[in-house]
Amino acid sequence: MITKGQAAVIGGDKDSPAEGTMRAVVQDGYGTADILRLAQVARPEIGDREVLVRVHAAGLDRGTWHLMTGKPYLLRLAFGVRSPRQPVLGRDVAGTVAAVGSAVTRFAVGDEVYGIAPGSFADFAVAREDKLARKPVNLTFEQAAVVPISALTAQQALSRVGRVRPGQKVLVTGASGGVGSYAVQLAKACGAEVTGVCSTAKLDLVRSLGADHVIDYTHQDFADGEQRYDLVLDIAGNPSLSRLRRALTPTGTLVLVGGEEGGDWTGGTIGRQLRARTVSLFVRQRLTSALNKESGRELESLTDLIEAGRVTPSIDRTFPLAEAPDAMRHLEAGRVRGKVAITVRPPR
Ligand SMILES: NC(=O)c1ccc[n+]([C@@H]2O[C@H](COP(=O)([O-])OP(=O)(O)OC[C@H]3O[C@@H](n4cnc5c(N)ncnc54)[C@H](OP(=O)(O)O)[C@@H]3O)[C@@H](O)[C@H]2O)c1
Asked: pLDDT confidence of 3, banded at 50, 70, 90?
């Protein structure tokens, strides 16, 4: 039986697909990129408040990598203990509306959209209406597909959690990555003075994103006391809390966003987040963390910024759907400058 919103793997020949089927990158369990394979699966069905998107491009992000590996193990409680309940990989999507549920009011068949749709590494994916927005007219589908999760995370960490204000000095670690490449641009768009921290090979990228200053962490310590920041977004996730605090002004704000260095069970961020929130009770600095909220409405406000030319997705490489495993390996190797897109099916 095919569960609504999911895609059952039915095997088949990708050169002569059966009626009602589609190509998809599936995973039968958790593991490395070697477990991914291109298969013919049944097209998913939509519910009343859902939208069927014909996928033109999908975006790759760290969260998708976590869903592939099933690490930290804690996430399996939500996504499936032995194997993911949604066997098709991918979350970020850009495409054309192919069908809408009976209660959908914001979109119609033929609209160009982007947003978050579990199972986006496929010809079709199902998204909740409230997780989609109108695609920016000035972007290709590949560019649009790499926006949603990373840019929403950056926007929410800066504004809702970090409460950034014009003129503030903002430090962004992990500035060359998916979330960081948007954080630098969005902080500039808010009128902040931005310093981006990254490795040597990516300094030019971070400068090109509009950073006022760049710090090569292999040569310079951002916490050496030379400069203090009103707001620090820690996206890289590896500096200790005490180093991050040293980079802050006495009443500055630290927002923890990422981290990959924790154990397999709870991941890199949970322990640091708890420590930060506890310390925050006893000091004048505000130490907190951000968790992405997948909001189509907030994505609409990013559409406006993108169309105004204030934010531009930075694509490192584009891979065809069948090469999704290579895209994963590229991300895993830490070579990505900005974002990686998956081309699924060009619009006709
Ligand atoms: N809180 C949330 O809701 C949320 C949402 C999305 C993502 N995240 C997390 O945020 C983190 C970043 O995500 P992303 O999509 O931006 O990942 P990404 O595209 O892989 O970028 C991570 C960046 O961190 C930098 N980095 C890696 N090792 C580093 C080190 N040792 N020191 C300093 N910087 C280092 C890398 O740049 P260099 O090569 O220049 O070092 C890389 O560009 C991940 O841990 C992800 O899970 C959290």
From this structure: very low
From 60, 62, 214, 339, the mutation candidate for ligand 1 (largest count of ligand atoms within 8 A of CB) is 62
| Nearest atom of ligand 1 to the alpha carbon of 180 | 16
Rounded distance between C-alpha atoms, residue 144 and residue 148, angstroms:
8
Binding-site residues, ligand 1, Cβ < 6 A: 61-63, 149-150, 153, 173-174, 176-180, 198-199, 202, 217, 235-238, 257-260, 290-292, 331, 334, 336
pLDDT band at 16 (very low <50, low <70, confident <90, very high): low
pTM of the full predicted structure? 0.94
Segment 4-25 mean pLDDT: 65
The partner residues of 172 in beta bridges, in order of sequence, read 196, 233
Residue 245 dihedral angles phi and psi, to the nearest 5°: -65, -35
Annotate 41-77 with b (16+ C-beta within 10 A) or e (fewer): bbbbbbeeebbbbbbbbbbbbbbbbbbbbbbbeebbe
